[in-house]
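Many introductory courses stop at the sequence. We go one step further.
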Amino acid sequence: MKFFIDTANVSEIREMAWLIDGVTTNPSLVAREKRPFEQVIAEIC
């Protein structure tokens, strides 16, 4: 079984990195971060 986190919050991703296999996100989640889209995606990738 693989676990994915559905967020654009980089802190949450880092906190759960030991457990998750990947990240899913969408434009609405990125908008909640109140940072430029490109900056958030670059940090996630």
